[in-house]
Write a structure and sequence with these properties.
Length: 771
């Protein structure tokens, strides 16, 4: 059944966009305010971002403990906000029955915020911590230098993040400006509200009208045109190691230019043979490429291509080839390019979430091909870019991953592959997990070769909404594909061939350059490997050759799990797995964490960060999930709001490598790792009180109809690794039986580290009690 959409304007000026999508399990709201950091008074940098933060601190009607963030998180949903140059976005995703409650909280907090001075003071410290952490990252410093390439008279080159010094809370002028900004822009004429879900359009319209009407009436402001983006040529960007930035600026583009650029970047990022990236890769020059739109407003646009090139590459030749490719694209029939783009857009739309659909609608860029206006903008965009003749370019052929026909050949499924039935085939979403135990110490060196061999396929997969991931933890390699079932089958078949016999160019290529991560994200990335880490093995000094890789695969033991495949797809899946490497294996023994273990992880950032993972045995995981659910709000309230330890504060129940447990994380600009841990333990010592509504709420999250398809698949895989009951209803029933005494006992066991602690931090252990 196709999606249906509806657009209407409310009497107060608010524009409402509705999307009925029957396949969705969740509903989402995305509210865009057409005002951002560049619309705030220049005297008070960061005012718009600061106001965005203040909205989430609760109101008289919905205090913090019952506000939007707690409400959505309690339902296992997603919620966030973002302030850009000319827009501010608020968005959340929840079960359909909870859309009304979320929408009421969202609209009410924006209409009637509590701007009390004391809460402003606390939140300014959070903004300052966020600014300090962000500004210290190499990526932020690089982006700042990119924005300095435009005219200094354009607001894009200024400071807008906000910090302790720019947010002068006790200045009367600042408070007047804060209130005036809210009155001026948080009114109906400045707002687009988009709702997406499985509900009928009439039901979505009723909700949108009811809560959208809370905003005062107004009209869209016709603001003055911004200063010229350029006052001459773009200022050059110096290369940083292997990184090179190609920057492009445009003035006076027609409407729909941003959608036109999306088509161009879709073509540019296609790394299949015939295009610019393929030519760079064939020469051995391509180590990485990303594209990003830095700014788009009122006919102005700034975007860049970030290239990672080896020292042997010629930047001037790289740019000349790009100009030749742009000239080739300029000569192609736009309708033909647009038809191929439409196929990709349809594929993306069919696989994305309610939240992605709502956000696309609120930004005016749904998953559709370009209309006549967009095609005109595409032609103007191409004319404004440097272009030349020359080069042997061609448009790529049809993508095999999009072929939905069932292959003629078939083979029974291998015995080492498990089948899970948590996800009905009617969802048209499947996930396949393959895992190899590789005891050879050469696996670490071969991992880089495998990653390089898979990269082009992963790029193709991402284009067609197929997730294809390869990762390593301890002595294990894992490959996962998720998406449309036949795309998964075709993608896995190609991936296995590449992993078994990587092409010659992948054996000697330089290692990929990993982007720097803020400390807390670096710790999260290190957690799986820390759980699986065994004894250090000496690395043989041999030269890597195909026979060595063949030997590694012969020693490997594999297992796998297929989720969401229809019976008619089993034989094609079996055919794709016919040549799988290694011998059948069984799930490994569970990881055992004993005592208090502290692992120091070196991070690129210097701010103190700490993760505490408390694993639990299978029989305690229902109680553990409820305990984590009840702790989520208090941890955030105490550590983030009251103690202001930092902006990165979270707690949750996580399953990592088949190990379930409570996970706490904090990054702080001023508290040490030992102090962070002390505050956390002090909070846990205060205990929790059972809330029967919260228990019922959590149990309801373990229903297939309430979980995202990818979540269901991941649940099944983690249960398979842990050799525990994969039945979702069993976990739901178990949660409903947990009582206060069990929570108290479990909390006592956690504080005593009875089941072990694994603490990851970017500092050494504080004392000898850790090992």
């Amino acid at each position: 059944m196709p999606d249906t959409t509806r657009h209407l304007n409310l009497p107060n000026g608010l524009h409402l966009t509705l999307r009925h999508t029957p396949r969705l399990k969740r509903a989402a709201a995305a509210l865009r305010v057409h005002a951002g950091s560049h619309d705030a008074p220049a005297k008070w940098p960061g005012l718009a971002h600061f106001l965005e933060h203040l909205f989430f601190l609760g109101t008289a009607r919905f205090p913090l403990q019952d506000g939007l963030m707690r409400y959505v998180q309690g339902l296992g949903g997603q919620v966030n906000a973002s302030t850009r140059e000319r827009t501010t976005d608020f968005f959340f995703e929840v079960p359909p029955v909870a859309l009304a409650g979320g929408l009421e909280r969202l609209c009410q907090m924006l209409v009637e915020p509590d701007l009390g001075l004391e809460r402003q003071r606390r939140e300014r410290e959070v903004i300052h911590a966020e600014f300090i952490a962000w500004s210290r990252t190499p990526e932020a410093q690089r982006q700042f230098s990119l924005l300095q390439s435009v005219s200094p008279r354009h607001p894009l080159s200024g400071f807008h993040a906000g910090n302790r010094h720019s947010l002068a809370l006790h200045a009367r002028g600042f408070q007047q400006a804060l209130s005036a900004f809210h009155r001026r822009f948080y009114q109906g004429g400045q707002i687009t509200l988009s709702l997406a879900g499985p509900q009928p359009l009439d039901e979505l319209e009723q909700l949108g009208e009811q809560f959208g009407a809370l905003f005062p009436a107004g009209v869209r402001e016709q603001r003055d045109a911004p200063a010229a983006l350029l006052d001459g040529q773009l200022r050059p960007i110096a290369a940083s190691g292997s990184r090179h930035d190609l920057l492009f600026a445009h003035e006076g583009l027609p409407a729909a230019a941003e959608q036109a650029l999306d088509l161009l970047l879709t073509l540019l990022n296609d790394s299949r043979p015939g295009g610019w990236l393929a030519e760079l890769r064939q020469r051995g020059w391509l180590q990485g490429c990303t594209t990003q739109v830095l700014y788009a407003h009122a006919g102005q646009m700034l975007w860049h291509i970030q290239l990672l090139l080896p020292a042997t590459a010629s930047l001037s030749t790289t740019q000349s080839m790009l100009h030749g490719w742009l000239g080739f694209i300029r000569r192609q029939p736009a309708a033909q390019l647009n038809d191929a783009y439409a196929q990709l857009q349809h594929c993306r739309e069919q696989s994305c979430s309610a939240l992605e659909l709502a956000r696309r609608d609120s930004s005016g860029q749904p998953f559709e091909k370009l209309d006549a206006q967009g095609l005109a903008a595409f032609a103007t965009l191409l004319d404004s870019l440097p272009h030349a003749d020359g080069g042997r370019w061609q448009l790529p052929p049809a993508e095999p991953l999009l072929d939905s026909t069932t292959p003629a050949h078939s083979t029974p499924l291998p015995k080492a592959l498990g089948l899970d039935n948590n996800l009905p085939p009617t969802r048209q979403f499947a996930s396949l997990y393959l895992r190899w135990h590789i005891p050879s110490p050469l696996r670490q060196r071969f991992q880089a070769i495998i990653e390089r061999a898979l990269q082009p396929l992963q790029e193709r997969a991402a284009r067609v909404a197929l997730q294809l991931r390869f990762n390593a933890s301890g002595e294990y390699w894992q490959l996962q594909a998720a998406g449309q079932p036949m795309a998964v089958i075709r993608g896995i078949e190609e991936a296995l061939a590449l992993m078994q016999s990587p092409a010659a160019e992948h054996w000697t290529a330089p290692a990929a350059v990993e982007p720097g991560l803020i400390p807390i994200r670096a710790l999260l990335k290190a957690l799986p490997d820390a759980l699986m880490a065994g004894e250090e093995q000496p690395q043989p000094s041999c030269i890597l050759t195909p026979p060595w890789l063949d030997s590694l695969w012969q020693q490997a033991r594999w297992q796998g799990l297929a989720v969401g495949f229809a019976a008619s797809q089993h034989n094609p899946l079996g055919a794709a797995l016919q040549g799988i490497m290694g011998q059948p294996g069984t799930p490994r023994a569970k990881v055992a964490i004993t005592g208090r273990q502290w692992r120091q992880i070196h991070t690129s950032g210097s701010e103190p960060a700490l993760l505490l993972f408390c694993p639990l045995p299978t029989e305690l995981q229902a109680a553990g999930r409820l305990l984590a659910h009840l702790l989520q709000g208090p941890v955030y309230q105490r550590l983030r709001v009251e103690l202001q330890l930092g902006y990165a504060v979270f707690s949750a129940f996580r399953q990592v490598e088949g190990v379930g447990g409570l996970l706490f994380g904090v990054q702080s600009p001023h508290a040490s790792q030992e102090q962070i841990l002390g505050h956390l333990l002090q909070l846990l010592e205060g205990g929790v009180s059972l809330d029967s509504n919260a228990r019922q709420q959590l149990a309801g999250q373990f229903e297939e109809s309430a979980m995202g398809n990818a979540e269901v698949a991941e649940w099944a895989w983690q249960a398979h690794l842990a050799t525990q009951n994969p039945d979702l209803s069993y976990m739901s029933r178990s949660i409903l039986t947990v009582e206060q005494a069990q929570l108290d006992d479990l909390l006592s066991q956690l504080l005593d580290a009875e089941h072990g602690w694994l603490c990851l931090a970017n500092a050494a252990a504080p004392n000898s009690s850790w090992h």
